[in-house]
Amino acid sequence: MSRNIHTMFHPENKIWQNKEAGTLRLLSTHETKKEAVHKGYSFALTNKSVHVIHSMDGSIAAKNSYSN
Description:
Layout: E1 5-10, E2 15-20, E3 26-30, H1 33-47, E4 50-54, E5 60-65
Parallel strand pairs: 1-4
Antiparallel strand pairs: 1-2, 2-3, 4-5
């Protein structure tokens, strides 16, 4: 089973990051949300999983599924 990919803002480090749900695994870090969303999309598409995009406040802004 593939894990969801979360694109979120890290307030302490002031960076956008992509993480796999349920793990501590950090997939990538980015200066802008646009860059992070693009890379998160790529991870989710490759893994055939769900890409969850968060706003700066942590709320969910969008969810996109790339499974079959």
